[in-house]
Design goal:
This protein has 114 residues and is of the alpha+beta class. It has 3 helices and 5 strands; from the N terminus they run ββαββααβ. Strand 1 and strand 2 form a beta hairpin.
């Protein structure tokens, strides 16, 4: 698969003060985890990283969630516990990552007319 054409799956959770987003490997693994908590989180999430979008939903600019933000929303600073809550209460969103736009090779390498 060409870079930029990958399927992107994320879980969006609308919190009290912030919107939280985590990336998962695929919809099936996230749904399987919801019904079988014995599945390791490492097989579900793409990275143990939580993003906030500053109340812009799942499409806003994504910044890393601070420990204070996690504490305020989830009552813990533990990323793994917060991720579990986002997976349980959030909504799955699947999207096709946009292909890179623009010119691919303006000079055309050695094929360019001189």
């Amino acid at each position: 698969m060409t870079r930029g054409e990958a399927q992107q799956t994320k879980v969006h959770y609308k919190g009290k003060d912030e919107d939280f987003v985590i990336f998962v490997d695929d919809v099936k693994s996230a749904k399987d985890w919801k019904t079988d908590k014995t599945i390791p989180l490492a097989q579900v999430v793409s990275a143990f990283k939580i993003f906030v979008t500053h109340k812009h939903g799942a499409q806003g600019q994504m910044d890393s969630a601070s420990k204070a933000t996690l504490e305020n929303e989830f009552g813990t600073t533990n990323d793994e516990e917060a991720i579990k809550q986002i997976l349980e209460k959030g909504s799955l969103q699947e999207s096709e990552a946009a292909e890179r736009q623009g010119n691919k090779n303006d000079s055309m390498g050695s094929r360019a007319a001189h």
